[in-house]
Amino acid sequence: MNSFVHKTMVVQLQSGVTDRFPVLAHLSYDAADPFAVTVVFSHDGRVLARWQLDREMLAHGLTRPVGIGDVRLRPESRGMWQELRMELLGDARPDGGRHHAVVYAWTATIAAFLRETYEVVAPGREEVRVDEFLADVIAGS
Q: Which residues, listed in sequence order, are joined to residue 78 by a DSSP beta bridge?
């Protein structure tokens, strides 16, 4: 059985108040880290950002607002389409503010990706190998 799920999709990066432009989002899930979904945003072959999201939070964000920290998700309607609005707060800027990005993805595509991850590790069946994690931390890896 495959323990890895990957999906590449086009998302919309908000620029300014209303302008959007397309970028690629590469979503990946690995059963070895069952609570996390990694998203890499790229454009013209360049990596723009890499984020690790909580899988359960991503699922909840499809139906209701979630997140109060660096990642905030909420569903939004755009005409007949349902979107997931992802607000991502990054590192500090020299002016004292923080890098900030808003990305919109089709809800149906995110939901399909999550269903594939559930085939690998069902919700509630995630396991944390604490002993292995602590051994890695102590070893310095």
A: 81
